[in-house]
Design goal:
Radius of gyration: 22 Å
Strand content: under 5%
Helix content: over 70%
Order of helices and strands: HHH
Number of strands: 0
Number of helices: 3
Structural class: mainly alpha
Shape: rod-shaped
Distance between the termini: 24 Å
Largest sheet: none
Length: 104
């Protein structure tokens, strides 16, 4: 069972998740991460933010974390859906194989 349908489904789901992330995840992830970074930098340095290097670094790191979290969530969800679909197909194929063997 090295090349099971569930494993292929997981790969297909991961590929679809990467495409969906590129289309729907990059911009919202960076936007929400940047907003969170501005809030954190505002708590530390006060608003409005001065154009210092530390506040910019905080916003940059928060944006990167937002994009990373969005990517992890989207790719994990689509991989899981692909794997579950593959498991369902594996189960139905195994069930059909058992029925065919029983009727011989």
């Amino acid at each position: 069972m090295k090349n099971s349908i569930a494993k292929k489904g997981a790969y297909i789901g991961a590929g679809a998740g990467l495409v969906l992330f590129a289309i729907f995840g990059l911009l919202p992830g960076s936007l929400l991460g940047g907003a969170a970074g501005i809030n954190v930098a505002g708590w530390l340095f006060g608003l409005p933010l001065e154009p210092g290097i530390i506040s910019r670094a905080i916003v940059l790191i928060a944006m990167l974390v937002g994009v990373l979290v969005a990517g992890i969530v989207i790719v994990t969800a689509t991989t899981t859906v692909g794997w579950l679909a593959g498991r369902m197909l594996d189960g139905s194929a195994a069930h059909e194989h058992k029925e065919a063997a029983a009727h011989k």
